[in-house]
Structures are given as structure tokens and as C-alpha cells.
Amino acid sequence: MKIHEYQAKQILTQYGVKVPEGKVANNPPEAFEIAKKLGGTVAVKAQIHAGGRGKGGGIKIAKNPEEAKEIAGKLIGSKLVTPQTGDEGKVVQRVLIEEGLNIQREFYLGIVIDRSQQKLVFMASREGGVEIEEVARTSPDLILKETIQPGIGWQSFQARKIAFGLGLNAKTVGKASRLMSALYRAFEETDASMVEVNPLVLTEEGELYALDAKMSFDDNALDRHPEIVEMRDLSEEDPTEIEASRHRLSYIKLDGDVGCMVNGAGLAMATMDIIKMAGGSPANFLDVGGGANLEQVKNAFRILLLDENLKAVLINIFGGIVRCDVVAEGVVQAVKEEGVKVPVVVRLEGTNVEKGREILKDSGLDFLVATDMADAAHKVVQAV
Amino acid sequence: MAIWIDENTKVVVQGITGREGSFHAAQCRQYGTQVVAGVTPGKGGMKQDGVPVFDTVQEAVEKEGANASMILVPAPFAADAIMEAVDAEIPLVICITEGVPVLDMVRVTHFMRGSKSRLIGPNCPGLISPGKCKIGIMPGPIHKEGSVGCISRSGTLTYEAVQQLSSRDIGQSTCIGIGGDPIVGTGFIDALTAFQEDPATEAVVMIGEIGGTAEEEAAEYIKAHFKKPVVGFIAGQTAPPGRRMGHAGAIISQGQGTAAEKIEKMRQCGIHVVESPAEIGSAMQDVFAQKSA
Fold it and tell me: A85 contacts in B (CB within 8 Å)?
């Protein structure tokens, strides 16, 4: 789960991380009031979940409250296109107004999970404000890394290694060390999957601030963090994906016109692949899960049909725990209830496959039955 | 022969009185697996379909001689269940449960260092040595006894591959679903090492997914140490970057783990990578044809 910059800053502040003074504005008059209260030059920052906001024109400097109001007026309600939003962009609902700082230097700090080491890793670089992926490509030597030992946690010597490595002076190293352990504690205690402060800035006054902050969380751990769940902004998510997640279905909208319904993430991806190889283009990823029941299959099918671009549907089920007759029954009921206007190709295999195929045949509905994956992909592409 | 499990394996099912646990314990027994005990804290002394239930894994080991555990408990309790099995020195722990928090797995992995146990999973279908023992949720009948080892990060896609093999009369020695999560107990290389030493395994099918670098590392290992032919497939060639595809593992991020990168690396290391998931079985058929030629 992702959250906004202002929310990440709220969390980090609780752990003692310094952030610029500021507040969220939902409309231009609020932006004016906040900027007036802060005084002087302020930053107006669009709050959307995607990164690369600076490049997309979503972060502007305002010299006075009037300007802040004007910029907020332009940003709020507009579609912001950044390198990470895709061409369709994202609508800005609110902006964060923050005091300006006297920036001396900028750095990068982040914590991620290293799969191969199976541990958390702290990363830092002198190239603040630049995406870490970019630094990793162009100058990997500039990235400092410290592995965190589970059960032992983040140690002061590791923080000192990074702080001195970033070229901070003795006076600032203590502050940096405290800031890093705060980030680590925030990560551990919220079950984060990523924490990033980019840039971390050193001001002329010698203070360290998280000028930007990004956090995302492990969906599997949200049950134990109700306070994080409350931060979820549904307007940032695709409505169909929200509907799918309510039914515990894993759905991702794509650009194509062949709808797919598959059990298992790996098989679902492989099905998308084979559709593409047959010359088609998948409209979605949809995993009905390992233990899908009749209702689940019906819901999945209904959600699939919400896509207006759909020209054909491919159902590929390999029954293990999921029985093919249950899937067939669900599909038949869904088709009868929803009234499907596009061709539906069905490929069933595994547990109770004969019964499943019979149900499809006896339904009186016009399914295209495929014998295997290649045949299914071929049939569905021809049907488009 | 097979790896890790055979007709002598004695299984304890953690969570045996739950809906999933009771169902799959019965399915495994029906396949011929020796399910000797179950564990549900607080229900010690009762029986589940004739299988004795204990309060702790330790008791199941002491009284019934369990040497493998199948875990089917709800996700919030999975890490604790794994550690209990490890503490009881169960040599093989298979965690089927999906949705285990990643930081729980960071702690579990740390807890297991230096232990006598191997963990498979979490979020996996388990493993099966056809004709001998099934510990997991895969459909038994699609499998066939034989000489191909299967290792996969995905569940149903493994069934697909197995079906393609069996329908061509190519049997399997052992099929392992290692799980799709970012942190899993057993990786490709662990399984490959075991298949290398297993005389009954003549060739291997390796099915990967986008995300992470496990397939690349396995490919390096195969090039350097693995002497048997390997057929490979990577799911997610058409997946958009930055999106999580069901499995937490299936996400391309930080310029790592694209299907193209993995496929290229695997080919460089001598793996027969098929582009289409429908060609896994026929590629293995070709491998055997070449071997006998």
C-alpha cells in the first residue's frame, strides 16, 4: 500500500525526523492561508502517489501567498503526468504547502528489503534529489550500503559509516545517526516495504530535514496496522482494482482488449504472455486465487466485464483445489446474469475437468472450448 | 529415488483442525502420504479423521516420529508455526500459508540460521515425489513417477508444466513449488543441488517469474555446477513494470528482474528456455530425444 508524501512525513515526524513546516491545502484559499502563516517563500507540492513529480511540473516555488494560491489553483483538479504515472496521468486532489529552507547540500537515504540476503538494507548517496535507480546505473560507487542484522537492528557505527561517507562533519554526524535510526524504527514498526527520504537536506544552519518522504507498506501486514490502513487514499487507485480487492481478487488493469481470468499468479502471467505471442493484447491480469468458490468466480467474471475495451475473454483454469465444475458453474451463471456480448474462450484442466466441460456444453451458451493453452490463445485472438 | 520426501516421510500437519488443514491432510493421506500427527494448540488429545492431534510440535515428534511438517495456519500465525517446527528440529518444514508479512520472514530466516531444518515456502503449493509422498495442495493425479525434477515459483503454472510432461509420458522425480514471496526458505539453487545428487533425476524443469534475481543466480549455478539438462520458462514477459502481479515476488522494480534479462542470462548459461508456456513439455521431450540419440 502506498501513501502520500504528507502522510509519510506525519509518520516520520512521530519518530523524531525533522520535516519542513507545512500543511495540506485542499483548495486555493487554504493554500493562501497556509502560505501566509508560513511567511516568505514556500514550496507547493502536488500530492499524488506516483514519483517524478518535479519533472512533471507538480512541485513549484511560490514567493508569496498570492502566488501559492495561484499555483494551487492550477494544480488542484489538474491531471499531472510524470515519468511514473503513465500517459493518462493522475488527478491532483490536494497540495502540500511547505516553508522554504536554506539548502546547503542534498542527499539520498532509503531502506529496502534485499531479497537475496533476506535482510533490510540501508542505502545512502550524495546524489540527493536524483532517483536511486539512476545513481545505480550511472555511478554505483556513490551508493553506500549497510545491511541490518535481524534481531540486532540498526547500529550507531553503521550510521556513522554512512554519515561520514556522505561527507558530513563531526557536528552533524550525531544528528544524522539519530535520523537514520528513526527511519529504521519507522520501517520496522509499521511493516513498511520501503522508506525513502530523497532528498535529505542539510541547511545552512546545519540542520537535517526530510525535504521529501516516501513510504509504502507490506499489504500482508496491514491487518496489524489499522492506523496505516486509514491513510489509504482510494481516489489514487483504479476503481475496478478496488472492487476486485474487496472480493480478495487480484486484478490489474492493462491496455489491451482480451480479458483474462486465471487461477494462480504465475499461470495468469503466463496466459498474458501467450496471448501476446498469439498476436493479441491482454486487457488485465486477474488471479481468482487458489481456493476460489462459485461466488468468487462470478465476482471475478463480473469485474472482468467492467472493462469497456473488452473484445473477447479467455478463461484459463487449472483445477487443483479449485474444481473445474465449480468454475464452469460460476462462469455459466455469470454469463446468464450479466449477458456477455463478447466471445468467451474457456480452457479447463485438472480436478473434475470432464464435469466442468459438460456443464459448459449443456449450458446452451456459446462458449469456445479450447484444448490447451496454445489453442486457447489462438482461439481468443481470432475471436477479437 | 527422489529428493527430500519419499514413502518413509512422516508428516505432522500444523493447523490440522482448520478448514484448509483438515481438507489437505485428508488429500495427502489419500495420495498415500503418512500423515502421523496434527497440531492445534488447545486441541491436544482429540483425533482428526483418525489422526492424533497434539498441542505442540515437540509432542508430535516425540510420540509419532514426525520428520516433516506441513503448515496450513492463518498468515498471522505462520511465522510462529515455522519457528515451532524448527525448534522441534523437524528436518523439513513446508509452509503452504500465503500472505505472511515479509518482516516476519526476515525474522524467521534469522531464527533458522544454524538450525537443522529446511524450510520450503511460504506461499507455495508444497512438494510431491510422485507415487511416494505428497506434502502440499497440488492435484496428485496429474503427476507421474519418473526422472524429471521440477522447481517453480508458481503453483498452477507448475501443474501446467507437469500436465504437459505426464501427457507425453515423461514422469517426475520430485516437484517443488518454492513459493512466490520475496523471502522464501528454499531457493532454486538448494533444489538444484539436491537434484544434482539424486541419481533418479535426469533432467530439470525450472519455472521462474519476473522480479528479483533468483533465476539469474540459479542460471550461474547451473553453468558452473549442474550437469543435467534444464528446460526453463519465465512468466511475466508482458507484465508492466512497477506493478505487483498477485505474488509479492512478481514485481519488476529498480531495473531488476525483467523477463528479458532473466531469459537472456538463462540462455547464456545453457538452459533451454522456451518462450511459450505451452512448449515446456515438448522442449523436455526434445531434450530426452537428444540424450538417447
Answer: none
Categorize the per-residue pLDDT at B164 as very low, low, confident or very high, splitting at 50, 70 and 90. Answer: very high
Nearest by CB to residue B276, choosing from A136, A351, A374, is A374
Range list of β-strands (E), B4-106: 10-14, 34-39, 47-48, 51-54, 68-71, 92-95
pLDDT of residue B244: 60
- Report how far residue B36's alpha carbon sits from residue B15's, in angstroms, rounded to the nearest whole number: 14
Give B181 to chain A, closest Cα distance, Å.
9
**Chain B CB within 8 Å of residue A218 CB:** yes
**Residue A136 contacts B, CB cutoff 8 Å:** yes
Quickly count: other Cβ atoms within 10 Å of residue A87's Cβ. Answer: 6
Pairing of strands B92-95, B118-120: parallel
Closest among A43, A67, A42, A66 to A53, alpha carbons compared = A43
Q: How far apart are CA B71 and CA B221, in angstroms?
A: 30
User: Between vectors from CA A273 to CA A272 and to CA A278, what angle results, nearest 5°?
Assistant: 100
First to last CA, chain A: 35
Q: What integer pLDDT is reported at residue B242 of this predicted model?
A: 61
Phi, psi (deg, nearest 5) at residue A62: -120, 130
A119 pLDDT exceeds 70? yes
**Do B138 and A320 count as a contact with CB atoms less than 8 A apart?**
yes
Q: Quick count: other Cβ atoms within 10 Å of Cβ B113?
A: 9
What pLDDT does A323 receive?
83
**β-strand pairing of A367-369 with A344-350:** parallel
Contact between residue A280 and residue A258 where contact means Cβ atoms under 8 Å apart: yes
- What's the average model confidence in pLDDT over A194-219? 95
Instruction: Answer yes or no: do B102 and A218 touch at CB < 8 A.
Output: yes
pLDDT at B174 over 70: yes
ipTM rounded to 2 decimals? 0.90
Q: How far is B234 from chain A (nearest CA, A)?
A: 8
